Structure formats: C-alpha cells, structure tokens
From TrEMBL:
A single BP term in Gene Ontology: lipid metabolic process
InterPro entries, A to Z: GDSL_lipolytic_enzyme, Lipase_GDSL_AS, SGNH_hydro_sf
GO molecular function ontology, one term from the record: lipase activity
GO cellular component, one term: extracellular region
Superkingdom of source: Eukaryota
High-level lineage: Eukaryota, Viridiplantae, Streptophyta, Embryophyta, Tracheophyta
Species for this entry: Durio zibethinus
Annotated protein name in UniProt: GDSL esterase/lipase At1g73610-like
Amino acid sequence: MEPSFHLSKPAHEMLESPSQTFPALIAFGDSILDTGNNNWLFTMTRANLPPNGRDFAGGKATGRYGNGLVLSNLIGLGIKFPLPAYLDPNLPREDLATGVCFASAGSGLDELTAKTVKEVEAYNISQVVMNRDS
C-alpha cells in the first residue's frame, strides 16, 4: 500500500540554497514532541520518572516521553538543540526568539481528552502563552 502522505521533493531540495538556515523552531503537539512542559502542569500525564530519559544527556528523566530524544529534539538537530519546554520557569526570554516547544502530552483537539487528564487543549494554547508572563 502506498503512503498517503509524501513530500513533492526531499526537504533539503526545498531550501533555496544549501547554506539557508531556519531562524527558529516552534513545536506544537502531544507526547511525541513534548520536551517537558507537563513537568510544570497539574496533570497525571508526566514523564519525569524512570525509565524515561535513561539515554538522554545526564541519564535522568526530563519530561520527555522516551528513553532519550523525542521527535522535536531530532527535528531540532542543526536548528536548536535541545528544544526547551515553553513552561519551564527557568526558560530565558531570549529562547523564545529561536524556538521553544509548546507540545503537551495528553493534549488534543477533543476537549474531553484534555479535561479528562487536565491537560492543555490544543486550541487553548494561546491563552497559556499570553498568561505566562502575567
């Protein structure tokens, strides 16, 4: 069976020149991309316990849903690594200009999913962003 999604050409050919770079990386999504936002939320969906993180730098759980890098980290190689969690209270303001991860494990477009696990609803992330510094 043929894949239902494909790019018209390889990603490296989409750049105007081989030296072109991306100025920032912004990630939205769920646990596949979450780099630790759930550590700062009152939720039952957290990955800050072993075995998560055992293969990550330092060997400790960082809130990533995996034993090492999550997809947003892999995408960020060469752009921004590691991609910091937006809700991390130690996040320097300067990092906002070069990229952050807004992904939150358990989030979704279905309002019931987010309410069940007390998670950030995908369509409501703008309120979290606007209220962060207030």
